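Reviewers of the previous submission asked for a worked example of the structure-prediction workflow described in the proposal, so we include one complete record here. The input consisted solely of the amino acid sequence. No template or homolog information was supplied to the procedure at any stage.
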Amino acid sequence: MRRVGRSWEFRHDQMRAFLAASSLADDTPTLTQLVARIEEEKMLRLRRDDQEALWSFLADLLADHDVKELWIYAQKDPGERGLLQGALQRAADRRKILLVRPAEVDSPCDPGGG
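From that input alone, the workflow returned the following C-alpha cells.
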C-alpha cells in the first residue's frame, strides 16, 4: 500500500494480472476478439514477468476449447507468443486437455495466417 494524495493505493502485480486476465476472458465474447485485443493492446510486448502472470491467469479462466484454439494461435510465432503458449500448455496439462496442432494451421482466431 502507498499513500496517494488523501487516499491509499494498493498495488499488487498479481492482482493487476488477474484483473486484466478476467477482463480479457469476460469482456471478449469470441476468441477472435480476444486475439485482436491482445494484439491491439500490445500485450505480447509486456515485460516477461507481467506476461507470465497474465497468461497464467488467462489460461486458467478459458474454456477447454478456447485453450486449444489460443494455443494454435500462440505457436504460430513462438518467439513472440512463447510465454502465452507455455501458460496454455501448463493449463492443458493440469486439465488433461490434449493439444494438437493441425498440419495447416488455420485457426478462426488468426484469420491473417500468422
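The chain has one domain: 11-95. We consider this example representative of the routine output the project will generate in years two and three.
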